[in-house]
Design goal:
Helix content is 30%, strand content 30%. The chain is α/β, with parallel strands linked by helices. The protein is globular and about 55 Å long.
């Protein structure tokens, strides 16, 4: 089963869920989850259910589900000080301390191909609807830290955007594209650059490459071999190499990073 997870505490999440129900043939079923209604849709490859939780998505570390889940897709708001309109996708998990849910130094399993499909579909929707939004990968960050393949598709970055029904529809389409993924794309680990990775986003939108975990510039200083291995092992697809935003890595960290990649036997490409 594939689950789309909406939070009753998240305005954008409820807006995205509203679009899924109104525009994409989700139907209420007799079952309930946490005493909340469940909506379901038959997809070509698998049944997809839309469920609602009572807490913030980042605090869902201890949620348990009645059936085995193949993919968790959290539909969520994105918040930033800049407030820039953004449609984004990322894997949750903590590369260091757990300051916003999840477990310290534990990342979720990254569904790289599903995230790429979501990214591409949100870009198509953004262009078709002439939305003045950026479409972007974000780095791996915040909770939960789960073994099941888990991703966030987000609408940001301020209440103005959270209430935007057209942008919410774009995110809904991205979530459904992720849920219906059939291709397995060549997958890489992204390292370097800012929280929003324009270079990795462009690479994914213009080539067959998919990104799993993305380790930003600010996390490299404390990055160890164990975390590198974990980001590789906790990716659904085989990780073929690391892709480095070379200018987005501090000079003082470059040699040490390359030595770590050599030790774990992962090749790399600079972009």
């Amino acid at each position: 089963m594939i689950l789309l997870v909406a939070s009753k505490k998240d305005e954008a999440s409820l807006n995205i869920a509203k679009q899924l129900i109104a525009n994409h043939d989700f139907r209420k079923v007799p079952k309930r989850f946490l005493n909340n209604p469940i909506y379901s849709k038959e997809m070509p490859n698998e049944e997809v259910s839309l469920i609602f939780i009572d807490q913030e998505p980042v605090n869902s570390q201890n949620l348990s589900f009645p059936e085995p889940v193949n993919l968790l897709i959290f539909i969520s708001r994105h918040k930033s000080e800049s407030g820039r309109p953004t449609l984004s996708v990322h894997t949750p998990g903590n590369l260091g301390e757990a300051s916003l849910g999840g477990l310290p130094k534990k990342v979720s399993t990254s569904p790289a191909s599903a995230m790429k499909e979501a990214l591409m579909e949100m870009k198509r929707a953004q262009e078709e609807m002439s939305l003045e939004y950026e479409v972007s990968y974000e780095c791996t960050h915040h909770g939960p830290s789960l073994s099941v393949p888990t991703m966030f598709v987000e609408l940001g970055s301020s209440p103005i955007q959270w209430r935007d029904s057209e942008a919410a529809e774009a995110v809904a389409r991205g979530a459904l594209a992720a849920a219906s993924v059939e291709k397995i794309y060549p997958t890489v680990l992204g390292i370097g650059g800012p929280h929003y990775s324009a270079k990795f986003t462009k690479k994914a939108l213009t080539t067959k490459i998919a990104f799993g975990h993305i380790i930003p510039k600010y996390a490299i200083e404390k990055l160890d071999e164990e975390m590198l291995r974990q980001c590789i092992e906790r990716t659904l697809e085989p990780v073929q190499k690391a892709m480095l935003d070379w200018k987005g890595i501090k000079g003082a960290h470059k040699k040490n990073l390359l030595n770590k990649l050599l030790k774990i036997g992962l090749g790399f490409e600079k972009i």
